[in-house]
């Protein structure tokens, strides 16, 4: 079994993963304790976190599962379009989970096929993961979780974690040699725009800017954190950008498939002018945290960003939004005009 675990690890590295580890499924049991701790600290998050308890008891869903293969791949090799920096979160720009054009997506399929070729039953969930991904990577010794809640290797936090449950009882762990966060460092907490990150190793996802610009924020004129959202239209990188352990770690010398073409069509003014066919069938496929029925949210978020850092050239776009086909966009445009007195 040790030989089989090493074969799996070696194949992962051959395919370009930075690290690979294997843990037994019962090592995820204490993930439930972590969820309880989060809810105890921020009780309002109970509804949000309750959906993740099944991640701690994988055999309830997959009775045949015995181990979890965890792999890490970096995305800091990709070039960030300058005009999208601080507007769209980097993890979403380089999201390979459902992008079949990306090498990373295809490599994931190859890796899964390789394990199946070894006679292993395999299952994954590409969008949100088959288990608590950061906790599984921590258990495998692939890195550490820092005070901003993100998972880090020696090279920083700009990474994607993938995991597969398998029907073989295997184990392969590393021992990370990474300097922990200083107890005196609170740069990420100080930088958090909405104070969602209120203390180390915890957060309120319901007030996180990344959540407000994607899953939540459906009543933007009355959203109490709309000013904290600043220029962000989709996602937020502030707590990672402010972390000294990420300083000078971004490489950015490769182009992500099709990103340049899509990014050339994105600006605050262009978002407001976008037709809904493009929003639903092009932009939503790339940035899928906003579902098709809610793509109007792109326009609302763009108007909110215009309000937060208003420029005179935004005036025409805001007035154009008064004629939008969606009520929520018209409502936000009317709010902006009154708020800005334009």
Automatic annotation (TrEMBL):
Keyword Hydrolase among record annotations: no
One example GO MF annotation: epoxyqueuosine reductase activity
Keyword Metal-binding: yes
Keywords: 4Fe-4S, Iron, Iron-sulfur, Metal-binding
Any matching Pfam family: Fer4_16
GO BP: tRNA queuosine(34) biosynthetic process
Source organism superkingdom: Bacteria
Name of the molecule in the record: 4Fe-4S ferredoxin-type domain-containing protein
Organism (species): Clostridium intestinale URNW
